[in-house]
Specification:
The protein has helices spanning 3-13, 29-35, 68-75, 87-94, 139-142, 157-164, and strands spanning 18-22, 43-51, 54-61, 65-66, 82-84, 110-115, 123-127, 133-138, 148-151, 154-155. The chain is of the alpha/beta class. It has a single domain (3-156), classed as YbaK/aminoacyl-tRNA synthetase-associated domain (YbaK protein). It starts with a helix and ends with a helix.
């Protein structure tokens, strides 16, 4: 069973209301901005990392950048030990398509970490495990799922813009 099917089963089992949006495959944020009709400011991207024997799904606003120092300090880990997971391993072992990672754990090996900005949104759009489907759901519902925490991990967009000037 692929991750998408497991995610849908998990959402149904926990009585979480959600909507599935079908669309052309969108493996990147840049393509999402061009191809989807929902507000990109409500979209969360998910990055996958390995730390020792754990998988960490890090989810933050689509246009934000991960601030590694914040993440590592919050988790009390060294940056050099945090590695991007190979997309083939992610798909073969857990069923998530590259570019379609959902911030929803389908295995006890996977922990999900959301940036604190999820608390500022009532509704979010996120990956589904597939590149051609996006899940819309309440932020309070997704952060209530098992193995999910919220911490401050994003670099502020405004800071990025000021540094570019």
């Amino acid at each position: 069973m692929d991750a998408y099917q497991k995610i849908i089963e998990q959402l149904n089992a926990t009585n979480i209301e959600y909507k599935i949006h079908s669309h052309a495959e969108i493996p990147t944020v840049a393509e999402a901005k061009e191809k989807v009709d929902f507000n990109i400011e409500q979209c969360f991207k998910t990055l996958a990392f390995k730390y020792e024997d754990k998988i960490l799904f890090i989810s933050l606003l689509a246009e934000d950048k991960l601030k590694y120092s914040k993440l590592c300090t919050s988790l009390n880990i060294k940056r050099k030990n945090l590695k991007r997971i190979d997309s083939k391993e992610l798909e073969d072992k857990y069923g998530y398509e590259s570019g379609g990672i959902a911030p929803i754990s389908v295995s006890k090996d996977i922990a999900v970490i959301f940036d604190r900005k999820i608390n500022d949104r009532d509704i979010i759009f996120c990956g589904s495990g597939r590149r051609d489907k996006t899940i819309e759901l309440k932020s309070e519902d997704i952060i209530s799922l098992d193995r999910t925490v919220v911490i401050d991990i994003a670099e502020e967009i405004e800071q990025n813009l000021e540094q570019e000037r």
